[in-house]
Write a structure and sequence with these properties.
Order of helices and strands: EEEEEHEH
Structural class: alpha+beta
Strand content: 15-25%
Largest sheet: 4 strands, mixed
Number of helices: 2
Helix content: 25-40%
Oligomer: single chain
């Protein structure tokens, strides 16, 4: 499973980032008041998911890159499902 991790962004007076997997969809991290706290959380997420051989982590440099990769993943999934070649199992765990 592919996990996309967006860049750190300033939002609503704090810092956060987005993640995307087909299993969980688009999710936003907790909003941190300090940039270093958000960066630590992002790195901890990567470190936690990295040992899982089923998980392919992709850290995006820009929000534009993240959005493009999310759309591409959604298109691939829609194509797979519509062609009847779905290989995901119900209840599949996210990274």
């Amino acid at each position: 499973m592919e996990m996309l991790i967006g860049p750190l962004l300033e939002r609503n007076g704090g810092y956060s980032y987005d993640t995307f997997t087909l299993a969980d969809g688009l999710r936003s991290s907790f909003r941190y008041l300090r940039l270093d706290a958000a960066r630590y959380d992002q790195r901890a997420l990567i470190a936690e998911a990295r040992p899982d051989p089923r998980c392919n982590i992709r850290l995006c440099e820009t929000q534009s890159e993240f959005e493009q990769l999310v759309e591409a993943a959604r298109r691939r999934d829609a194509t797979t499902v519509s062609s009847g070649d779905a290989t995901t199992v119900a209840g599949e765990q996210s990274c």
